[in-house]
Design a protein that fits this description.
Blueprint lengths: L1 H18 L3 H14 L27 H36 L16 H32 L6 E7 L10 E5 L2 E6 L3 E7 L5 E7 L1 E7 L6 E9 L2 E7 L13 E5 L4
Parallel strand pairs: 1-7, 4-9
Antiparallel strand pairs: 1-4, 2-3, 2-5, 5-6, 7-8
Helix pairs in contact: 2-3
Length: 259
């Protein structure tokens, strides 16, 4: 019995470490690999990225592009450092072999200079594309906001009752492909939806669970997510979860065209 308990605790800690990464950390890992292999062609194997640094002033832990930019620059610097060490080792080995047979003139080391101006241009293009996507996304929601009928809507409630198992793992709620909220243990999301076409609700944590719904005007729907050993389940229920099983401060209220 003790062994099973220890295995459960280890599994929870392992899953927690996997899903504790924020967007900045994920962007940093990808950017570090891209920077290290920049201009090295096919077949480049980037080393394991270091632990993600703390975001600087002006950077956000929720920004993938901020993490990517930091990682890209550090990856390029690491590539430069490794390249210099390899060249020095190769030249030193060559000198040792050469000096054993003949005298030679000293040749100054060649210092490789990466194309930093080109890299800066690439980062500027990436940032411009990212900002353009954000503006387009915001414009689409403004258009949608003016097209909807505010008197016709359904309400979707998603509950995550208080439980000790899996309480440290975040649960991300995605509705129709949009990241709506993160539910922690004891959380409750009340979501008013005006788009009464087919609705897809996804719970993403240690695994993914998805349900589809055809919302009807004036209807109220209830869903519950709860942990299991391999992740979280998502199921429709008939009535609201009692308030004693929730935490009032973790109540979230949102509308489908405002996030």
């Amino acid at each position: 019995m003790k062994n099973k308990y220890k295995l459960l605790v280890i599994s929870i800690l392992f899953l927690t470490s996997i899903y504790s990464q924020n967007k900045f950390s994920k962007g940093f890992e990808v950017g570090y690999s891209s920077g290290y292999c920049y201009d090295k062609g096919i077949g480049c194997l980037a080393p394991i990225s270091p632990i993600s640094p703390i975001p600087k002033i002006g950077e956000s832990s929720d920004s993938y592009i901020d993490g990517y930019n930091r990682g890209f620059i550090m990856g390029v610097n690491k590539q430069r450092e490794d390249s210099s060490e390899n060249r020095y080792s190769q030249q030193n080995s060559f000198r040792q072999r050469y000096y054993t047979t003949a005298k030679a003139e000293f040749i100054d080391d060649f210092a490789y200079k990466p194309p930093f101006e080109l890299m800066a241009q690439l980062l500027a293009i990436k940032n411009a594309n990212y900002q353009r996507e954000k503006q387009t996304h915001a414009l689409n929601y403004e258009i949608k906001k003016h097209e909807i009928n505010e008197e016709e809507f359904a309400i979707i409630n998603i509950y995550r009752p208080k439980k000790s198992m899996g309480s440290l793992l975040p649960v991300q709620v995605i509705i129709n492909g949009i990241e709506v909220a993160d539910l922690s243990s004891g959380g409750h999301l009340e979501y008013r939806i005006h788009d009464l076409s087919a609705c897809e609700i996804t719970i993403k944590s240690a695994g993914i669970a998805t349900l589809r719904l055809m919302p009807k005007n004036g209807k109220v729907y209830y869903f519950e997510t709860k942990p299991k050993f391999s992740g979280f389940t998502l199921e429709q229920i008939q009535e609201a979860i009692p308030q004693k099983n929730l935490k009032e401060k973790k109540y979230i209220n949102k509308v489908d065209y405002i996030f």
